[in-house]
Structures are given as C-alpha cells and as structure tokens.
C-alpha cells in the first residue's frame, strides 16, 4: 500500500524560505540542513510538529515558515526517521522526488519552547560531531 493511501494529509513543509501559493518546492537544491549538500528529495509531513522543526531548524535568514503543500506525485516514508528513530512513522514524515505545490502559509503555528529547541540543537551538534548526516 502506498503512503498516499494510508495518509490523506493535509501535508506541510517547514522552512525559512519566503514562498507564495502556487510556488513549487523541488529536490535538487541545496539542503537546508547539515552540510548543505544537494537534496535528492523534498520532504513533507502530515503533522504540524514535524513541520515546526523544519521551520525552526532550517538554515536561512528570516522567520521560520510553515506551508500547506500538495504532493504532485508519489511519496514514501522518510527512512531517516521511520527506519532509524520512529518505526511505524508516527511523525507522518515523507519524502518525494516530485515537486510539492505550495497551497498556503500556516500563520498560527506554535514554536517549540526555547529549552526544547536548544536541546534539539545540542543533539544535532552531537550528531554532527559524530559524523552522522541524516538528510540525503
């Protein structure tokens, strides 16, 4: 069964990019995370919490933003999370080679507390120190 059949959405993408409805997010750009390698996938989630992490931790200037997006093709579970950290995909995190179309911006999302955000940044720094790069 494909993820689309199991998860009807809605879907979100967290970033620092300033986008408008109708814009497309595509793989092949520089990743917003880690060593900023070329991203082979574009990521989406069906939870605002996971999108919030993307908005808060992405590289870039300006505020974090969360967009409601529509996949234009097939997508699969994000193995960086589902296989390694959260079997069964409770974060409802996915990746795709196909563009995501921006539907609108979510304006009423709640950021993580400063303490929780700092704990995540510390954890990511430790992974970096260990040479672990999850995003491909």
Automatic annotation (TrEMBL):
<dbReference type="GO" id="GO:0016740">
    <property type="term" value="F:transferase activity"/>
</dbReference>
<protein>
    <submittedName>
        <fullName>Rifampin ADP-ribosyl transferase</fullName>
    </submittedName>
</protein>
<dbReference type="InterPro" id="IPR038611">
    <property type="entry name" value="Arr_sf"/>
</dbReference>
<feature type="domain" description="Rifampin ADP-ribosyltransferase">
    <location>
        <begin position="11"/>
        <end position="109"/>
    </location>
</feature>
<feature type="region of interest" description="Disordered">
    <location>
        <begin position="1"/>
        <end position="31"/>
    </location>
</feature>
<feature type="region of interest" description="Disordered">
    <location>
        <begin position="69"/>
        <end position="96"/>
    </location>
</feature>
<dbReference type="Pfam" id="PF12120">
    <property type="entry name" value="Arr-ms"/>
</dbReference>
<dbReference type="InterPro" id="IPR021975">
    <property type="entry name" value="Rifampin_Arr"/>
</dbReference>
<keyword id="KW-0808">Transferase</keyword>
């Amino acid at each position: 069964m494909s993820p689309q059949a199991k998860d009807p959405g809605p879907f979100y993408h967290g970033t620092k990019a300033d986008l408008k409805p109708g814009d497309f997010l595509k793989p092949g750009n520089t990743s917003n995370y880690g060593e900023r390698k070329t991203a082979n996938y574009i990521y989406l989630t069906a939870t605002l919490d996971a999108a919030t992490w993307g908005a808060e931790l992405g590289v870039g200037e300006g505020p974090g933003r969360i967009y409601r997006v529509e996949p234009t093709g097939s997508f699969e579970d994000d193995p960086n999370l589902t296989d390694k950290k959260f079997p069964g995909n409770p974060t409802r995190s996915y990746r795709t080679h196909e563009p995501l179309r921006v539907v609108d911006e979510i304006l009423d999302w709640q950021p993580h507390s400063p303490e929780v955000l700092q704990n995540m940044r510390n954890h990511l720094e430790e992974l970096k120190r260990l040479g672990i790069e999850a995003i491909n």
